[in-house]
Amino acid sequence: MRRRILQCCSAIALTAAMLGASACSAPPSETTNAERTAYTEPPLPGKAEPATSPQAAPPPANCGDPTASLRPSRDPEQSGPTIDAIRARGRLVVGLDTGSNLFSFRDPISGTIEGFDVAIAKEIAGDLLGDRERVEYRILGSADREMALQNKTVDIVAKTMTITCQRRQKVTFSTVYFQANQRILVLKGSGIDGIADLAGKRVCVVKGTTSLQHIQQYQPAASLLTVANWADCLVVLQQRQVDAISTDDSILAGLAAQDPYLVVVGATISPEPYGIGIPKGNDDLVRFVNGTLERIRNDGTWNAIYNQWLAVLGSSPGPPQPRYED
Protein backbone atom coordinates (compact mmCIF):
# COMPACT_ATOMS: atom_id res chain seq x y z
CA MET A 1 0.00 0.00 0.00
CA ARG A 2 2.81 2.37 0.90
CA ARG A 3 4.48 1.64 -2.48
CA ARG A 4 1.25 2.47 -4.32
CA ILE A 5 0.91 5.80 -2.52
CA LEU A 6 4.49 6.74 -3.42
CA GLN A 7 3.86 5.79 -7.06
CA CYS A 8 0.70 7.94 -7.17
CA CYS A 9 2.51 10.87 -5.61
CA SER A 10 5.35 10.51 -8.16
CA ALA A 11 2.83 10.48 -11.03
CA ILE A 12 1.09 13.60 -9.70
CA ALA A 13 4.39 15.41 -9.29
CA LEU A 14 5.46 14.42 -12.84
CA THR A 15 2.14 15.64 -14.29
CA ALA A 16 2.44 18.95 -12.45
CA ALA A 17 5.97 19.41 -13.71
CA MET A 18 4.91 18.73 -17.29
CA LEU A 19 2.03 21.22 -17.01
CA GLY A 20 4.37 23.81 -15.55
CA ALA A 21 6.84 23.29 -18.36
CA SER A 22 4.07 23.55 -20.91
CA ALA A 23 2.87 26.79 -19.36
CA CYS A 24 6.35 28.24 -19.35
CA SER A 25 6.93 27.30 -22.96
CA ALA A 26 3.60 28.85 -24.18
CA PRO A 27 4.07 31.92 -26.37
CA PRO A 28 3.52 35.20 -24.49
CA SER A 29 0.32 37.18 -25.04
CA GLU A 30 0.52 39.52 -28.01
CA THR A 31 -1.65 42.18 -26.28
CA THR A 32 0.51 45.22 -25.60
CA ASN A 33 0.13 47.82 -22.91
CA ALA A 34 -0.85 50.36 -25.56
CA GLU A 35 -3.70 48.12 -26.73
CA ARG A 36 -4.95 47.54 -23.20
CA THR A 37 -5.12 51.31 -22.56
CA ALA A 38 -6.38 52.40 -25.98
CA TYR A 39 -8.89 55.31 -25.78
CA THR A 40 -12.24 54.95 -27.50
CA GLU A 41 -14.01 58.25 -28.22
CA PRO A 42 -17.51 58.27 -26.73
CA PRO A 43 -20.38 58.01 -29.23
CA LEU A 44 -22.23 61.13 -30.30
CA PRO A 45 -25.82 61.65 -29.10
CA GLY A 46 -28.61 60.25 -31.24
CA LYS A 47 -29.44 62.28 -34.38
CA ALA A 48 -26.20 64.24 -34.11
CA GLU A 49 -24.68 65.08 -37.47
CA PRO A 50 -22.47 67.70 -39.14
CA ALA A 51 -24.46 70.65 -40.45
CA THR A 52 -24.44 71.03 -44.21
CA SER A 53 -23.99 74.39 -45.83
CA PRO A 54 -27.39 76.02 -46.32
CA GLN A 55 -28.58 76.46 -49.88
CA ALA A 56 -29.11 80.03 -50.96
CA ALA A 57 -32.74 81.01 -50.46
CA PRO A 58 -34.64 84.18 -51.24
CA PRO A 59 -34.97 86.48 -48.23
CA PRO A 60 -38.28 86.19 -46.38
CA ALA A 61 -40.98 88.76 -47.03
CA ASN A 62 -40.60 91.88 -44.93
CA CYS A 63 -43.24 91.75 -42.20
CA GLY A 64 -42.36 95.08 -40.65
CA ASP A 65 -41.91 94.66 -36.91
CA PRO A 66 -42.12 90.87 -36.41
CA THR A 67 -42.71 91.31 -32.67
CA ALA A 68 -45.94 93.30 -33.11
CA SER A 69 -48.99 91.19 -32.22
CA LEU A 70 -52.76 91.53 -31.86
CA ARG A 71 -54.05 93.77 -29.11
CA PRO A 72 -55.40 91.81 -26.13
CA SER A 73 -59.06 91.59 -25.26
CA ARG A 74 -60.00 93.25 -21.97
CA ASP A 75 -62.88 90.83 -21.43
CA PRO A 76 -61.92 88.09 -18.91
CA GLU A 77 -64.79 85.99 -20.24
CA GLN A 78 -63.63 86.36 -23.84
CA SER A 79 -64.83 83.57 -26.10
CA GLY A 80 -64.10 82.41 -29.62
CA PRO A 81 -63.88 79.18 -31.60
CA THR A 82 -60.39 78.22 -30.42
CA ILE A 83 -60.94 79.31 -26.82
CA ASP A 84 -64.29 77.53 -26.62
CA ALA A 85 -62.78 74.31 -27.97
CA ILE A 86 -60.00 74.38 -25.35
CA ARG A 87 -62.48 75.01 -22.55
CA ALA A 88 -64.67 72.15 -23.79
CA ARG A 89 -61.63 69.86 -23.78
CA GLY A 90 -60.72 70.98 -20.28
CA ARG A 91 -56.97 71.30 -20.75
CA LEU A 92 -54.41 73.44 -22.61
CA VAL A 93 -52.06 71.45 -24.86
CA VAL A 94 -48.60 73.02 -24.69
CA GLY A 95 -45.58 72.15 -26.83
CA LEU A 96 -42.19 72.41 -25.14
CA ASP A 97 -39.11 70.33 -24.40
CA THR A 98 -37.52 68.92 -21.26
CA GLY A 99 -33.91 69.71 -22.15
CA SER A 100 -33.80 73.48 -21.61
CA ASN A 101 -32.65 73.96 -18.03
CA LEU A 102 -34.25 76.99 -16.36
CA PHE A 103 -36.95 77.27 -19.06
CA SER A 104 -38.44 73.78 -19.36
CA PHE A 105 -36.90 70.71 -17.76
CA ARG A 106 -37.90 67.66 -15.76
CA ASP A 107 -37.08 67.89 -12.07
CA PRO A 108 -34.87 64.87 -11.29
CA ILE A 109 -36.48 64.30 -7.89
CA SER A 110 -40.18 64.96 -8.42
CA GLY A 111 -40.29 64.14 -12.14
CA THR A 112 -42.44 67.23 -12.79
CA ILE A 113 -41.79 69.58 -15.71
CA GLU A 114 -40.73 73.00 -14.46
CA GLY A 115 -39.10 76.26 -15.54
CA PHE A 116 -39.77 79.78 -16.78
CA ASP A 117 -41.66 78.73 -19.92
CA VAL A 118 -43.69 76.21 -17.94
CA ALA A 119 -44.71 78.91 -15.46
CA ILE A 120 -45.82 81.22 -18.31
CA ALA A 121 -47.91 78.41 -19.84
CA LYS A 122 -49.52 77.73 -16.47
CA GLU A 123 -50.54 81.38 -16.14
CA ILE A 124 -52.30 81.12 -19.52
CA ALA A 125 -54.04 77.90 -18.44
CA GLY A 126 -55.10 79.49 -15.15
CA ASP A 127 -56.73 82.45 -16.91
CA LEU A 128 -58.33 80.27 -19.57
CA LEU A 129 -59.49 77.29 -17.51
CA GLY A 130 -59.44 78.52 -13.93
CA ASP A 131 -56.74 76.02 -12.95
CA ARG A 132 -53.02 76.47 -13.58
CA GLU A 133 -52.46 72.70 -13.55
CA ARG A 134 -54.85 71.86 -16.38
CA VAL A 135 -52.00 71.58 -18.88
CA GLU A 136 -51.02 68.71 -21.13
CA TYR A 137 -47.42 68.80 -22.35
CA ARG A 138 -46.26 67.59 -25.74
CA ILE A 139 -42.50 67.20 -25.94
CA LEU A 140 -41.10 68.81 -29.10
CA GLY A 141 -37.68 69.25 -30.62
CA SER A 142 -36.81 72.74 -31.83
CA ALA A 143 -37.18 71.64 -35.45
CA ASP A 144 -40.71 70.33 -34.74
CA ARG A 145 -42.26 73.49 -33.29
CA GLU A 146 -43.62 75.06 -36.46
CA MET A 147 -44.99 71.76 -37.81
CA ALA A 148 -46.80 71.04 -34.53
CA LEU A 149 -48.48 74.44 -34.75
CA GLN A 150 -49.33 74.04 -38.43
CA ASN A 151 -50.85 70.61 -37.79
CA LYS A 152 -52.58 71.96 -34.65
CA THR A 153 -51.37 69.07 -32.53
CA VAL A 154 -50.70 71.68 -29.82
CA ASP A 155 -52.61 74.81 -28.80
CA ILE A 156 -49.49 76.84 -28.10
CA VAL A 157 -45.70 76.42 -28.10
CA ALA A 158 -43.84 77.82 -25.09
CA LYS A 159 -40.29 76.80 -25.95
CA THR A 160 -37.78 79.65 -26.17
CA MET A 161 -39.14 80.35 -29.66
CA THR A 162 -37.68 83.44 -31.31
CA ILE A 163 -40.09 85.63 -33.27
CA THR A 164 -38.93 86.13 -36.88
CA CYS A 165 -40.54 87.25 -40.12
CA GLN A 166 -39.69 83.87 -41.64
CA ARG A 167 -41.54 82.00 -38.90
CA ARG A 168 -44.48 84.37 -39.03
CA GLN A 169 -45.16 83.16 -42.56
CA LYS A 170 -46.15 79.82 -41.00
CA VAL A 171 -47.37 80.57 -37.45
CA THR A 172 -48.63 83.44 -35.30
CA PHE A 173 -46.96 84.85 -32.19
CA SER A 174 -47.94 86.56 -28.99
CA THR A 175 -46.17 89.69 -27.89
CA VAL A 176 -42.61 89.24 -26.63
CA TYR A 177 -42.51 87.67 -23.16
CA PHE A 178 -38.70 87.39 -22.82
CA GLN A 179 -35.76 89.08 -24.51
CA ALA A 180 -32.63 86.96 -24.96
CA ASN A 181 -29.39 87.41 -26.92
CA GLN A 182 -27.32 84.80 -28.75
CA ARG A 183 -23.81 84.29 -27.32
CA ILE A 184 -21.25 81.49 -26.88
CA LEU A 185 -20.56 78.89 -24.16
CA VAL A 186 -17.06 77.45 -23.77
CA LEU A 187 -14.75 75.78 -21.26
CA LYS A 188 -12.90 78.23 -19.04
CA GLY A 189 -9.48 79.01 -20.49
CA SER A 190 -10.45 77.84 -23.98
CA GLY A 191 -9.08 80.96 -25.67
CA ILE A 192 -12.42 81.57 -27.37
CA ASP A 193 -13.70 85.05 -26.56
CA GLY A 194 -16.15 85.74 -29.36
CA ILE A 195 -17.57 84.69 -32.70
CA ALA A 196 -14.34 85.56 -34.56
CA ASP A 197 -12.53 82.87 -32.56
CA LEU A 198 -14.92 80.17 -33.78
CA ALA A 199 -13.22 79.98 -37.19
CA GLY A 200 -11.95 76.43 -37.59
CA LYS A 201 -13.58 75.39 -34.30
CA ARG A 202 -16.27 72.81 -33.68
CA VAL A 203 -19.55 74.37 -32.55
CA CYS A 204 -22.68 72.59 -31.32
CA VAL A 205 -26.12 73.95 -32.23
CA VAL A 206 -29.64 72.51 -32.28
CA LYS A 207 -31.46 71.82 -35.51
CA GLY A 208 -34.28 74.14 -36.47
CA THR A 209 -33.01 77.13 -34.47
CA THR A 210 -32.11 80.69 -35.38
CA SER A 211 -28.80 80.02 -33.59
CA LEU A 212 -27.80 77.62 -36.37
CA GLN A 213 -28.70 80.15 -39.06
CA HIS A 214 -26.73 82.94 -37.38
CA ILE A 215 -23.52 80.92 -36.95
CA GLN A 216 -23.71 79.83 -40.58
CA GLN A 217 -24.21 83.46 -41.58
CA TYR A 218 -21.71 85.23 -39.31
CA GLN A 219 -19.01 82.57 -38.98
CA PRO A 220 -19.06 80.25 -42.02
CA ALA A 221 -15.56 78.99 -41.13
CA ALA A 222 -16.88 77.17 -38.06
CA SER A 223 -17.51 73.42 -38.20
CA LEU A 224 -21.04 72.80 -36.96
CA LEU A 225 -22.47 69.74 -35.22
CA THR A 226 -26.26 69.70 -34.99
CA VAL A 227 -28.11 67.76 -32.29
CA ALA A 228 -31.72 67.30 -31.17
CA ASN A 229 -31.64 69.39 -27.98
CA TRP A 230 -29.39 71.64 -25.91
CA ALA A 231 -28.75 68.98 -23.27
CA ASP A 232 -26.98 66.98 -26.00
CA CYS A 233 -24.80 70.01 -26.73
CA LEU A 234 -23.76 70.09 -23.09
CA VAL A 235 -22.73 66.43 -23.25
CA VAL A 236 -20.56 66.78 -26.38
CA LEU A 237 -18.88 69.91 -24.97
CA GLN A 238 -18.07 68.12 -21.71
CA GLN A 239 -16.67 65.19 -23.72
CA ARG A 240 -14.50 67.65 -25.73
CA GLN A 241 -16.19 66.60 -28.97
CA VAL A 242 -16.90 70.26 -29.72
CA ASP A 243 -15.16 73.48 -28.70
CA ALA A 244 -18.22 75.64 -28.08
CA ILE A 245 -22.00 75.92 -27.98
CA SER A 246 -23.81 78.94 -29.38
CA THR A 247 -27.39 79.91 -28.66
CA ASP A 248 -29.39 82.32 -26.50
CA ASP A 249 -27.65 83.50 -23.34
CA SER A 250 -30.67 82.42 -21.31
CA ILE A 251 -30.28 78.80 -22.48
CA LEU A 252 -26.49 78.93 -22.10
CA ALA A 253 -26.89 80.09 -18.50
CA GLY A 254 -28.98 76.99 -17.81
CA LEU A 255 -26.22 74.79 -19.25
CA ALA A 256 -23.46 76.63 -17.36
CA ALA A 257 -25.40 76.18 -14.10
CA GLN A 258 -24.82 72.44 -14.50
CA ASP A 259 -21.03 72.65 -14.90
CA PRO A 260 -18.71 75.06 -13.01
CA TYR A 261 -16.04 74.76 -15.72
CA LEU A 262 -18.20 76.47 -18.37
CA VAL A 263 -18.53 80.19 -19.05
CA VAL A 264 -20.60 82.38 -21.37
CA VAL A 265 -18.42 84.66 -23.51
CA GLY A 266 -18.55 87.20 -26.31
CA ALA A 267 -20.72 90.09 -27.33
CA THR A 268 -24.29 89.67 -28.51
CA ILE A 269 -24.46 87.88 -31.87
CA SER A 270 -28.17 88.49 -32.39
CA PRO A 271 -31.20 89.61 -30.34
CA GLU A 272 -33.67 86.78 -29.68
CA PRO A 273 -37.19 87.95 -28.70
CA TYR A 274 -39.27 85.02 -27.42
CA GLY A 275 -42.96 84.72 -28.23
CA ILE A 276 -45.68 82.14 -27.56
CA GLY A 277 -46.28 80.29 -30.84
CA ILE A 278 -49.93 79.92 -31.89
CA PRO A 279 -51.46 78.37 -35.04
CA LYS A 280 -52.37 80.80 -37.80
CA GLY A 281 -56.03 81.74 -37.81
CA ASN A 282 -56.47 81.30 -34.06
CA ASP A 283 -56.70 85.05 -33.47
CA ASP A 284 -59.05 84.69 -30.49
CA LEU A 285 -56.37 82.67 -28.71
CA VAL A 286 -53.66 85.19 -29.67
CA ARG A 287 -55.66 88.01 -28.06
CA PHE A 288 -56.34 85.89 -24.98
CA VAL A 289 -52.66 84.96 -24.53
CA ASN A 290 -51.67 88.59 -24.96
CA GLY A 291 -54.19 89.45 -22.25
CA THR A 292 -52.47 87.04 -19.86
CA LEU A 293 -49.05 88.46 -20.74
CA GLU A 294 -50.34 91.99 -20.13
CA ARG A 295 -51.68 90.94 -16.72
CA ILE A 296 -48.47 89.30 -15.53
CA ARG A 297 -46.43 92.32 -16.66
CA ASN A 298 -48.60 94.65 -14.61
CA ASP A 299 -49.34 92.67 -11.44
CA GLY A 300 -45.77 91.60 -10.64
CA THR A 301 -46.20 87.95 -11.67
CA TRP A 302 -43.61 88.20 -14.45
CA ASN A 303 -40.96 89.46 -12.04
CA ALA A 304 -41.85 86.74 -9.54
CA ILE A 305 -41.44 84.05 -12.21
CA TYR A 306 -38.13 85.59 -13.33
CA ASN A 307 -36.79 85.66 -9.78
CA GLN A 308 -37.79 82.04 -9.23
CA TRP A 309 -36.17 80.64 -12.36
CA LEU A 310 -33.78 83.13 -13.96
CA ALA A 311 -32.07 84.93 -11.07
CA VAL A 312 -28.80 83.33 -12.24
CA LEU A 313 -28.92 85.82 -15.15
CA GLY A 314 -28.85 88.75 -12.73
CA SER A 315 -31.49 91.06 -11.34
CA SER A 316 -34.76 91.22 -13.24
CA PRO A 317 -34.69 93.56 -16.25
CA GLY A 318 -38.46 93.80 -16.09
CA PRO A 319 -40.83 92.32 -18.68
CA PRO A 320 -40.45 93.38 -22.33
CA GLN A 321 -42.94 96.03 -23.33
CA PRO A 322 -45.56 94.86 -25.87
CA ARG A 323 -45.97 96.17 -29.40
CA TYR A 324 -49.31 95.86 -31.15
CA GLU A 325 -50.22 95.88 -34.82
CA ASP A 326 -53.87 96.95 -34.45
Automatic annotation (TrEMBL):
Keyword list, A-Z: Signal, Transport
Q: Which Pfam families match?
A: SBP_bac_3
UniProt similarity note: Belongs to the bacterial solute-binding protein 3 family.
Keyword Transport: yes or no?
yes
Q: Where is this region: Disordered?
A: 23-84
Q: Domain Solute-binding protein family 3/N-terminal spans what residues?
A: 91-313
Q: What's a GO cellular component annotated to this UniProt protein? A: outer membrane-bounded periplasmic space
Keyword Signal listed? yes
Originating species: Antrihabitans stalactiti
Q: Return the protein name.
A: Transporter substrate-binding domain-containing protein
The signal peptide, as residue positions, is 1-26
GO-annotated biological processes:
amino acid transport
Listed PROSITE patterns:
PROKAR_LIPOPROTEIN
Q: Which CDD domains match?
A: PBP2_GluB
